[in-house]
């Protein structure tokens, strides 16, 4: 009679979960398209095309995610948007 030895190996995977946050920009009836576009280019490093597209989405949909990343990177960017008179929050 032969005996087979079974070895079970437990593999532990350590996963580092990076939480991605978003800056959401909301529509308002105060700021012009030009102001929103310029502010997005400055605060979020958008290209003129990206900024224009986001401003159009915000206008018609009421809100738009304008930047995604780590909270520590988004916090000063969101503060710049708020200081410029835009409505935004990190979610």
Automatic annotation (TrEMBL):
This is ATP-dependent Clp protease adaptor ClpS. The keyword Lipid biosynthesis does not apply. GO terms for biological process: proteolysis. Pfam families: ClpS (PF02617). Residues 22-83 form the Adaptor protein ClpS core domain. It comes from the Bacteria. InterPro entries: ClpS_core, Ribosomal_bL12_C/ClpS-like. Keywords: Hydrolase, Protease. GO terms for molecular function: peptidase activity.
